[in-house]
Amino acid sequence: MTYQPSFQDIAHLGHVELFTPKIAESVAFFKNVVGLHESGRRGDSVFLRAWGDYALHTLQLTSSKTSGMGHMAFRAKSAAILTEMTGYLTRNGVQGKWLDHEFGHGPAFRFAGPDGHAIELYYETERFVPTGDQVPGFRNQPQRYSPHGIAPRRLDHINLLAKDVKACREFFRDALGMRVTEQIVYDGDQEMGAWLSTTLKSYDVAFTKDHYDARGRFHHLTYFIDSREDVLRAADILVESGAFIETGPHKHNIGQTFFLYFYEPGGNRCEIASGGYLIFDPDWKPVIWNKEDRAKGQAWGLQTVSTFHTYGTPPV
Amino acid sequence: MTYQPSFQDIAHLGHVELFTPKIAESVAFFKNVVGLHESGRRGDSVFLRAWGDYALHTLQLTSSKTSGMGHMAFRAKSAAILTEMTGYLTRNGVQGKWLDHEFGHGPAFRFAGPDGHAIELYYETERFVPTGDQVPGFRNQPQRYSPHGIAPRRLDHINLLAKDVKACREFFRDALGMRVTEQIVYDGDQEMGAWLSTTLKSYDVAFTKDHYDARGRFHHLTYFIDSREDVLRAADILVESGAFIETGPHKHNIGQTFFLYFYEPGGNRCEIASGGYLIFDPDWKPVIWNKEDRAKGQAWGLQTVSTFHTYGTPPV
Amino acid sequence: MTYQPSFQDIAHLGHVELFTPKIAESVAFFKNVVGLHESGRRGDSVFLRAWGDYALHTLQLTSSKTSGMGHMAFRAKSAAILTEMTGYLTRNGVQGKWLDHEFGHGPAFRFAGPDGHAIELYYETERFVPTGDQVPGFRNQPQRYSPHGIAPRRLDHINLLAKDVKACREFFRDALGMRVTEQIVYDGDQEMGAWLSTTLKSYDVAFTKDHYDARGRFHHLTYFIDSREDVLRAADILVESGAFIETGPHKHNIGQTFFLYFYEPGGNRCEIASGGYLIFDPDWKPVIWNKEDRAKGQAWGLQTVSTFHTYGTPPV
Amino acid sequence: MTYQPSFQDIAHLGHVELFTPKIAESVAFFKNVVGLHESGRRGDSVFLRAWGDYALHTLQLTSSKTSGMGHMAFRAKSAAILTEMTGYLTRNGVQGKWLDHEFGHGPAFRFAGPDGHAIELYYETERFVPTGDQVPGFRNQPQRYSPHGIAPRRLDHINLLAKDVKACREFFRDALGMRVTEQIVYDGDQEMGAWLSTTLKSYDVAFTKDHYDARGRFHHLTYFIDSREDVLRAADILVESGAFIETGPHKHNIGQTFFLYFYEPGGNRCEIASGGYLIFDPDWKPVIWNKEDRAKGQAWGLQTVSTFHTYGTPPV
């Protein structure tokens, strides 16, 4: 039988590359304020991970003329699935190329999504191996919890702006096997946002309508932290560091996560989040939010700040 | 030596009377949603308390044509102090009268503050005596923790609108012995807000400038809850109950408390708060916030919603 | 190709039936103290669910002469998988029978696990449909959050005592497609405990060695709550209700969850837990804890109380 | 009228001196793991403070042959009160001496309490003045919150072992004006513990019966942190640092605080705590806990570990 991508054929979001025009400031910010750990450097890039990430890196910062996303990479569930899925993509007209020597993982198939976002699929992964004072006291954790800065546990999800939300939603569902969990649909057919999951989390990737009808832009990257109290603590750390907090902490209707948005020195929006819900029902139907729902603001009534709807990277 | 009011001669804010044009709805809201307990009824009033309040009541709801504050009552440290302080007030031209038969406490001296707010001083207090399933498991708590609704621990503070913030601040400092802890002063001499304490909490009473230059209006009443996580939980409870959340949860610069503001059915603004700081330094100097500070919004950058500056009860 | 059970063919633990010799007290406890909701009654059973459970019930309490587990039920990912998996079981010598008229779900295949525990597999599920004041304010939640009692979000996992941990581990891995996530192994080959998952949670089912070498006994059932602060609040609620707290709150090494164990009136051990970690790595290798690890106690050094190792239901 | 010490004549516990046979390790531990800040060094001592302490130091670590407490110092409410109180002590036979050149504060009167504990009273205080990246974003905080290590907010209280609890309780009540808030009394008259307060916190100083009938020993020193979630985070930090956790996190019956006890490298017991209750009632009567109460363990039933009753510094 011919392979069809199905739910959870992709194991998880593996890492994201962000472009930054201020590489030194961005690296210092992610290390000292966010509390990530440096895994290595190669060329114009610096690689980082959170203490609870099992892979060698989940964030790649690359020096560039402007801000924005370089690429996002998803780990396939197995080598066989990687072969099948990339074959499926090729058969269906997706043009991609294999990259064999990237930092931290094996062969990756890179291609563009419907809106032009660069996507990679890979399977082989280099794991983080703790040494010295990074060896954890708990055998089931990849690294000792590091009490400096915000110190989130792990990479959580990515949110992208799209000229065509529907096309992105359908591609990620049909070609990458993701589950559509929640949507914003105005006036019955105008897709303003789509949340998709490749795990039991309520989302791993989200697309929201680009205010300027630009293509392939980046909205934000999110690291997860264990408690909402940690998110509140993160807000204090960000204020004290002089970082710009755009909105939050507050609770999202969509995903029910407790969010905090800020800009890193290179201009990219980032989020620290906690909470949310897991989806155990295998027959989950997408939850649809309409214009009236959205007019009520976030979960506890906070009106979304206008920049949240308009600001993306790179700037248009 | 002649008595002069000094810090902590008033032990604490004892209770607050709120007027409500919807007495049944207000009582149901404070009992079922906020999670207070009814202590008794008399005349047009219903008396309530939080599970951690030692006194028989901390809130009096009185049926009335409009919303607003009936009076606020402070407990003197001792019977002797009550005598001294009321004598001091009388000597200094404050006209008041003794009320001998109020619910839940002994003789109270009632008078008007500089802005016309009704104030009572009393000492003798009727304590709550738990019976049946209200008897606490912990000998040092007045009542069993009651897991229904928001369930705050205790009354915390009151915030009043004033035409003349300076006069209020000076009266509460000089005649009631309170400590000025924080202030908002615009352009060097325009007093926009004053926070005063009669305990080691950073404030027990606050005055903020009335947007309409009205006199003697009420801004909000606050119950304290143990954790910020409880405040977040309260927000969900309020949303689910259909209550109007005005702003929050977020953190105040002033007092550093974690706040959540909402309106009870009668129209009065209420707050659930946690956190904040205690003042141990006996020589504390008032912290002054200026216009530039205020323009930055609340602690994590949230812009204060306009109604917070304009809405008070009764409506003007 | 012949069907082989694979990871996540079972969607999740669906519900658990507990026997209780004190049905009225057990029902009252789960409703008033734990804060579950009654879904219905049939015969000697009462059916309950947490506010965040999508199914009509996750707990069945059945009046019985003694305590213990009636059965545990797992929901298959699809009708096709249910057919395949039950076929696989039958082919491999597992004797079971189909039950067609159970409360809240479609046809279920009931059989005994290696240690004699009663297991059901089913697919068709009756969903909870909120009405009146149970309709949630959030479209992605099955029911309004109900602020009474402990109010956990959802059923999380089950822990069973076993005479033969190894046999149970292998059966749940090979016949039910579960992932072995963590193990306790003494002296290199003595299996004292096994944790298995059918989701991305670190476990959904656990087996620990029966102190008395009895077969098929029950250790505990766990409901999940969103924050560790909620677990602490649950401890106060339990103490005030007069329930017996066996141990906790504290953090498990295994699973890294924050636990609280108590006995319901019928004598069965229950847990309220929060936290823990998700497993995104598709190649996760079981974490092995040895005798020296266990001698150190729980995550922060708490020595496990002896009853935790010896007490199960029904009593031996 | 002759001066009599009264409640709150002492403003607060100012600082504590701990002896340590491992000064370098102790300093490193308090700075890197606990997250205190060094204020200065003089002679054999290193001075430290928490980020929320207004004074230049709250902890003095002094190199010594053994562990134990050097002295504890209380700040009088005013210079006048200091004069009055020391006069009162002298008139009542307490022999003390004035120390004029100590680090961080003005003239201090040093004397021994009934059990031989060294006590100082002082008024003039050197405040911490933040510079550079320690300048806080919030005008009402003494220093920027520092996200490294446990990072408690402030010194909270001290707990001392005493051969004669009753004598200590009476002296701190009568000569220092403290309020007795809670007590442990066995068999109607055997005083096993006394908690006293000079603030509205439920205690600032505690005495518990020395298991060995030794005199003047030290039990523990406590720093306060804002949330119970922070205490749980502290437990992880301590485990990962290799520190010895003696007991907790759990909740005390007495004071209702959420505690975590550990030993610093010099052997002295320390505590990180949060929560608790404030006493607003000016007529508070001491809460008496008896032997039966104590047999029930801590608030949620944890049996107190035996070392907690027997271990003090210096060792006997």
How would you explain this protein's 3D organization?
4 copies of one chain form a homotetramer. With 316 residues, chain A is an alpha/beta fold. Chain A has a single domain (10-141, 151-310), classed as 2,3-Dihydroxybiphenyl 1,2-Dioxygenase, domain 1 (Roll), CATH 3.10.180.10. Helix content of chain A is 18%, strand content 35%. The first copy, chain A, is built from 6 helices and 17 strands. Chain A has a 9-stranded mixed β-sheet with strand order 14-15-16-13-9-12-11-10-17. In chain A, strands 2-3-4-1-5-8-7-6 form an 8-stranded mixed β-sheet. In chain A, strand 2 and strand 3 (45-49) form a beta hairpin. The first copy, chain A, starts with 9 loop residues before the first strand and ends in a 6-residue tail after the last helix. The mean pLDDT of chain A is 97. Chains in contact: A-B, A-C, A-D, B-C, B-D, C-D.
What are the salient characteristics of this protein?
globular; eight-stranded mixed β-sheet; nine-stranded mixed β-sheet; alpha/beta; homotetramer; 2,3-Dihydroxybiphenyl 1,2-Dioxygenase, domain 1; 6 helices; 316 residues
